[in-house]
Each structure stands twice: as structure tokens, then as C-alpha cells.
Amino acid sequence: MTYGLFGKLTAQPGRRDELVEILTGAAAALEADPGCLHYVVATSAEPDDIWVWEAWTDKAAHDASLEPPEVREVITRAMPLIAGMSGSTEVDIVGGKGLPA
Amino acid sequence: MTYGLFGKLTAQPGRRDELVEILTGAAAALEADPGCLHYVVATSAEPDDIWVWEAWTDKAAHDASLEPPEVREVITRAMPLIAGMSGSTEVDIVGGKGLPA
After folding, report:
1. Which of A55, A41, A48 is nearest to A92 (CA)?
2. N or C: which end of chain B has fewer CB within 10 A?
3. How far away is chain B from the Cα of A47, in angstroms, using its nearest Cα?
4. Residues of A whose CB is below 8 A from B96
5. CATH number of this structure's domain A2-82, picked from the four choices 3.40.50.620, 3.40.640.10, 3.30.70.100, 2.60.40.10
């Protein structure tokens, strides 16, 4: 089943832009990962909040994407900028617009 | 700014599949709407919950999409199947994978 995940990150005060840059960089790297269908980085009205929407061919593809050393390095760089993580919701994608046929 | 929206619908007990079908039908209709980038229908582990992730060129495109009579008709059909709506979050999409360049 196509796997979806979305969650909210709260950046350390005043450091959202740096975290957004790291995450959009991660999204760019995922262009080469056929298992990743969507990796969308967004901000909300809350000044430190970042939302990420992800869609993957399946959960295994998502989990495997976290293993490479270069991804671990990105996570290590991002962690000090993160004040909190909340609302991570896993979903089974049924279908819709914007997904590969 | 590219507009994102996600929210949770809770179907009347046992009627999730019917509601999912209406929503995926709505997504199919949106294939013809250039303002709609993503309209993804998903279910979570909660038996009656449906999550929808939407991405639009901007909020105006989203708002305009709710006006046509045929969409109003779909909403009218869906309403009796909905027990609750919660967690609707509006976001400004910064970028990422799966969006048109």
C-alpha cells in the first residue's frame, strides 16, 4: 500500500529558515529515489512550525531512505535546530491527484 | 505562495469506504483543474478516519474549486457520511519532491 506520512517539526526559535533549507535539500536528494513519490516541505502560520508531507511507494521504501550515511549526516545537522516533533501521522494512501498513475 | 491543506474526516461508523469513493471521485474530477497540484486521499489505522492532503497553486485556486455546482453536489452527497471534521491545517508550501517544477 502506498505509504503516507505527515508530521510537524518545531524549530528552535528563529531557526526555521535554516531547518527548511536542510529539509528542502533532503527533498532534492530524494529526486533520485524512485520509492519517494512526494516530499513536501511547508510552513504554517506558527512562526517556528514546519510541516512535511511524504508519500512513498511503501513503508519499506521510506524506512530504507533513512539508512544511507549521507542521510544520517543530514539528520545529525538538523537535530540541533529542532525544538520539538509532534503530530506524526502514518496513513495508507488510497489514491488521488498528483500521484504517479 | 503554493497553498497546502490537510485535514481529517471521520466517517459515520462503517461508511468510510463510501466516503473514500466520493473523495477519490472528486480527486479524479480535479485532474482537469490546473490549480490543483495534489489531492491525495488516505486512511489511517483508525477505522473511520480519512486524511486528505491537498496542494494548490494558491489559496484562491482552492477556494474557487469549491464553487462549481457539480462540486457542491458532491459535498452534499458526502455530508451525511461525515461524523466529524478535525485537524484542518493550512500551510504555505516551500517546495519539495512531487510538485511541478
Report:
1. A55
2. C
3. 12
4. 23-24, 27, 38-41, 52
5. 3.30.70.100
The DSSP bridge partners found for residue B42 are A93, B51
For residue A14, the distance in angstroms to the closest alpha carbon of chain B comes to: 17
**Cell 531512505 sits at which residue?**
A65
Question: What ipTM, to 2 d.p.?
Answer: 0.94
Task: Given CATH 3.40.720.10, say whether it is the number of domain B2-92.
Answer: no
Mutation target vs A (from B22, B52, B90, B94; most A CBs, 10 A cutoff): B94
Cβ contact A98–B42 (<8 Å): no
**Do B94 and A51 lie within an 8 Å CB cutoff?**
no
pLDDT at A78: 96
B 16-55 → A contacts, CB under 8 A? 20, 23-24, 27-28, 30-31, 36-45, 51-53, 55
- pLDDT tens track for B54-97: 999 999 999 999 999 999 999 999 999 999 998 689 999 999 99
| Rounded average pLDDT over A41-66 | 96
Please state the domain extents for chain A: 2-82
CA distances from A72 to A55, A65, A75, B21, B94 (A): 20, 10, 5, 39, 23
- pLDDT value, residue B101: 74
Count CA within 13 A, CB hemisphere, residue B5: 16
In this prediction, residue A100 carries a pLDDT of 85
Write the pLDDT tens digit of every residue in A60-69. Answer: 999 999 999 9
The Cβ of residue B86 has, within 10 Å, a number of other Cβ atoms equal to 9
